[in-house]
Every structure is written in C-alpha cells, then in structure tokens.
UniProtKB/TrEMBL annotation:
Binds 1 heme b (iron(II)-protoporphyrin IX) group non-covalently per subunit. Keywords: Heme, Iron, Lyase, Metal-binding, Oxidoreductase, Peroxidase, Signal. This is Deferrochelatase. It comes from the Bacteria. Residues 78-234 form the Dyp-type peroxidase N-terminal domain. The keyword Oxidoreductase applies. Residues 1-21, 244-263, 325-348 are annotated as: Disordered. It is an enzyme of class 1 (oxidoreductase). InterPro entries: Dimeric_a/b-barrel, Dyp_perox_C, Dyp_perox_N, Dyp_peroxidase, EfeB/EfeN, TAT_signal. Involved in the recovery of exogenous heme iron. Extracts iron from heme while preserving the protoporphyrin ring intact. Its EC number is 1.11.1.-.
Amino acid sequence: MATTHTPPEGADAGRTPWWNRPMTRRQMLRTSAAGALGLAVGAAAARIGWGAETRPAGGGTKAEAGSVQVVPFYGEHQAGITTPQQAHLVLAAYDVLTTRAGELKDLLRAWTEAAARMTQGQPLPASSSLTALPPADTGEALGLPPARLTLTFGFGPGLFRRDGVDRFGLASRRPNTLQDIPPMPREALDPAWCGGDLLIQACADDPQVAFHAVRNLTRAAAGAAAIRWMQRGFLGMPGAGGGDGGGGTAGAAAGSADRNQTPRNLFGFKDGTANRSVLTDAGLRQHVWVGPSDGPAWMRGGTYLAVRHIRMHLEVWDRTSLDDQEQTFGRRKDSGAPFGASDEFDPVDPARLPQDAHVRLARGDGSIQLLRRGYSYVAGIDPKTGLLDAGLCFLSFQRDLQRQFVPVLRRLQEQDALNEYTEHFGSAVFAIPPGTQPGSFVGEGLFGTL
Ligand SMILES: C=CC1=C(C)c2cc3[nH]c(cc4nc(cc5[nH]c(cc1n2)c(C)c5CCC(=O)O)C(CCC(=O)O)=C4C)c(C)c3C=C
Ligand SMILES: [Fe+2]
C-alpha cells in the first residue's frame, strides 16, 4: 500500500533533503525516530585508515599480502556481481512508500553516497555534533575491516507500474524483460517472500559488516521505503576464515589457488562449477551484461537478477542413498566431477546423465548460461513441522530474464529430480543498473529529465 510523504510548508522545503524534514505524526509512528534522522551526506568525517587497497577494474578484488581488501564502489558495472563471492549475504527487498519521483531520487542519491562510504570502510558522517540526537551511524561496524563489502542495488517491476498505477512516470522506461516470473508448476509461493520495488544485496566476509550496511540504508529510507522481505545467507569458504574465496562461483576468475574451491550447498554438493565458463570477458558479454542491442539505454552495462527462495528438505535428503543423491544432480558428491569424468571441471557429457538430472536439465543444449551467486540460509526450525527451515537463496544474474532464466526454471520445475527435495517459496526479479561514477547516483540514467 503506497503511503504519501507530506512535505513541510515553507521556503526551506525545497532545499532540505526529505530525510531531514519533519514528519507527520502518522509517518512518525510508522518509522523510528532514529531512522527519521537518516543520512546527512557530504559532511566531513574521520576516515578510518584501512591501509593499502587493491583495485583491479571490473568490481573484483585481488589478494595482496598485507593489504586490507576493499572492493571499489564506482565503476562500469556495480560490484557484487562478478566480485569473488564473499562469505555472507544480507538481501533486502523494499516497497517504495513515497509517490514522489523527487523523493525516490533523493533516496537513491542518499543510498549511493552512503554505499560509497561504507564499502570503503568509512562510517556515515555526522550531520550534527548534538549528543541529544542519535548518531548518524549506528556504530556496529566501527573498528571492523571493510570485509570486501559490496552493495548492489536493483529496481523491481513495481517501480515502473504497481497495481496498474505509474507512480513515478517511469512505466514507459521499463525494460521488456523485467517482468515477474510466470507461475510455475511446482512452486508454493508466499507473497511475503515475493516481489519488491527496490533491492539491496549486501555481501561481505563479515556478517556484521553486511548487516550494518543494510540497517543503515534502511534507516536512511525511513518514510520513503520499507523492507518487504530480508534474507541472510552464508557460504563455506575454504581456507579463508570467511575470506576472499568463492573460487568456483563468481570467484572463479580471481582468488589464489588454495582458495580456488567451489563452495558446497546444504546438500553437500559443489555448487557454482559451471560459472567458470561465464566468468570470462566473452562469457559476461554474451550472458550477463546488457549490451547496446538490448533493452533501454539506461540499462547498458547493467544486468538482471532473478531471486528464488528455495527451502531444501534436509531430513529427506539425509535419508537418501549416495547413489540417488548423485543421480539427482548428475555429478559426484566428493569431487564434483560430472558422470564419466574425474575432475570437477571436466566437460559434461549429457548422454551419461539421467534424463531428469538437475545438471542435464539446467544445462539444456548449453546455449543458455546464467551467472549464479546464491547463498545457503538456515532459519531455525519450522514451528509447524519441527523440521529444519533451511535452503538456498538462489541468485542469478543474466542479460535477459525471459530468454535465459525463465526457460531454464520451467524445464527444472517440470522435470527436475531435485524437485522431490525442494520447495520454492519466494520469487523476485530486479533490473540491476550499470555502475556509478562519483557525483552520480545508482540508476540515475533511468530518471532522465524527470
Ligand atoms: C532456474 C535456475 C536454477 C535453479 C532454481 C537451481 C536450483 C538449485 N541448484 C542446486 C544445485 C546445483 N546446481 C547446479 C548447476 C546448475 N544449476 C542451474 C540453475 C538452477 N539451479 C544451472 C544453470 C546450473 C549449471 C548447469 C551446467 O551448465 O552445467 C549444480 C552442479 C554444479 C554447478 O555447476 O554449479 C548443483 C550442485 C540446488 C541445490 C538448487 C535448489 C535448491
Ligand atoms: Fe542448480
């Protein structure tokens, strides 16, 4: 339900950023007083010195002895897509509450400026020296290393039109491919885990650093956007203590040899092996980045994200024989090798895989590829069943949702042997605009002359 922000009367209204303006009593009740103070950007603040930074192009990081890892925020593409996968995820989708395009732009500007600071290990700058006010930064990341924090922003279909209403005059700028995933035969979706107008993907090697970023960005959004759903995820990172690994996933292109291992999902299988062929310049151009011949110009250099919240029935899986587990995927559990081969990265021979094996169906004829960047989640016990509530926050980046993600998902939903052990309960898609330059804000190109 959209909520209108009432601007204050008076000459100052046009100059005071919306997040510092007074709120109506109703808005005050909706949001926390601390959050309403939000961010005041641009003020000087002490910079935490994190030592040498390594900044190769393209959003990646490079391990160098003695350096503290910081992932560049500005660049051609947003970070957090090809960045070697960090150990922790906080993924938050937001409903936009304001109906004013100006306030939406103010929010994106504030998010961009805050993200540019936090990803470099800097706290949010104080807007006042008054100790009678809550501090600008919530503080739980002070003294922690930047932990390769990346913040990736996305726009859901609802930003362009929701319930038939073009709230921000953006409807004509929606990319054709940005449409909700059509209903699938085997899903049991909970609306509370679906959709979202805006997305923040925070990834870091420290869970508190990732949470701090989302918490402070959410605080800055008070009155303009509210969290719709949030998922936390993790990956086992060999030898890194939560460090820079992720070799076989989006990290295959970087990382040192001893960390170059593909993480395992909660079914115990290496997950992300096939990303290696996407993570080349040619692979990314072909399968991930929106190119000049694709959708709207404002998306060039961007990509599209598909999110599926998937519960994995671990108790059922754990009673399944090793043979059946391996037949389900079409790969060996210990080595990750495809059937008929000995190494994880040996070529897949589809003829050797059962017809309903996950890899056979996901791969198809090999022409469609996705860049997967999912994370495991554990949310305790399902109070209704007493069973573990755990699974995969499936994330994939692709150049076109309808031509790449939807056909693969449909094939899997119709035939995949894995369906016996999984249940899709949430679904969302987002346009991930290209990277930002200093002085600009994420998605600025979308707004044109608005
Ligand atoms: C719609 C896309 C996909 C969903 C949903 C999905 C769910 C899912 N996958 C695993 C585990 C594995 N997936 C693997 C490979 C693989 N999966 C997809 C797509 C979806 N998976 C693709 C495109 C591929 C690559 C196929 C190929 O080209 O070879 C593998 C094998 C190792 C690997 O390459 O990563 C595993 C293991 C789970 C557990 C899951 C839902 C819970
Ligand atoms: Fe898969």
